[in-house]
Design brief:
By secondary structure, this protein is an alpha+beta fold. Helices cover 24% and strands 34% of the residues. It has one domain.
Length: 255
């Protein structure tokens, strides 16, 4: 065998290994771990107690099977500092969760897990327990997939596991800002810089799901609200006035 032939074999072997590596990475991406829990943290820049919940949410956001969202609310704005990321729809979402539980009390930091379990947002033990209980109940039951395709977003919702059971829910596209540091100048947190992750910047209703496979192809501009740079898809039971259990979810780019 000539040295030229040996070099050719080595080059082909290296090329083949590279192709296999690319294929393995693609397969791994296609088989990304499905979302097993959604954690919504209702918080405020004017809430002194919220600072202990922020690092917990940042840690949860790094877990592959978890969607961890920050939802800044407006009802502490009168305490000397107006939250720069808060919006009324997020405040109303927290109040709607409270109505669904038969009450009206809301507080910060409050975490809602999978649309049903509630805990103090700084109580990591309670949050882990709620997520663990959800997994033991087979996690989120409906497959949800979201993909950016050029200037469009493709959303696919799976079928209910039991065709005989009446199932329904609402599909939401949730624009998020992946990271933002805020220098708070007054109020209970005056003088500190808070770092937030996956800040919800809006709630875009895509449509109703009735238990059958469903897909949406929507313009990417729906997720380009305020300074959002990614998005999440949620399939949630209940209604606008009383949101129920989150049945399925998917992460957008970079989450």
């Amino acid at each position: 065998m000539t040295s030229r032939h040996q070099a050719w074999i080595r080059e082909r072997s290296a090329l083949g290994a590279a192709v296999l590596l690319v294929a393995a990475v693609a397969t791994s991406a296609a088989r990304a771990e499905p979302v097993r829990a959604v954690v919504e943290l209702f918080t405020s820049q004017g809430c002194g107690a919220c600072r202990t919940a922020e690092p917990i949410l940042r840690d949860l956001s790094r877990q592959p099977g978890v969607i961890a969202l920050t939802l800044p609310v407006t009802y502490w704005d009168y305490l000397g500092w107006k939250d720069t990321l808060a919006s009324r729809p997020l405040t109303e979402r927290q109040r709607a969760y409270a109505r669904g539980r038969g009450g009206r009390q809301v507080f910060t930091p409050q975490a809602v897990v999978d649309g049903s379990g509630v805990a103090v947002g700084s109580d990591r033990v309670a949050l882990d327990r709620l997520m663990r209980d959800g997994v033991q109940q087979d996690g989120l039951p409906i497959a949800v997939h979201g993909e950016a395709r050029g200037d469009r977003i493709r959303v696919e919702i799976g079928a209910a596991p039991d065709a005989k059971t009446q199932a329904r829910g609402e599909v939401w596209l949730v624009p998020v800002l992946r990271r933002r540091a805020v220098a708070i100048q007054s109020g209970e947190n005056g003088g500190r810089t808070a770092t937030y992750v996956n800040v919800v910047r809006g709630l875009q209703h895509l449509g109703h799901w009735g238990g059958q496979p469903l897909s949406f192809d929507v313009p990417g501009t729906l997720a380009e609200i305020a300074d959002a740079d990614s998005w999440v898809v949620l399939l949630q039971g209940g209604a606008d006035t009383k949101p129920g259990r989150i049945l399925g979810a998917a992460k957008g780019p970079g989450l």
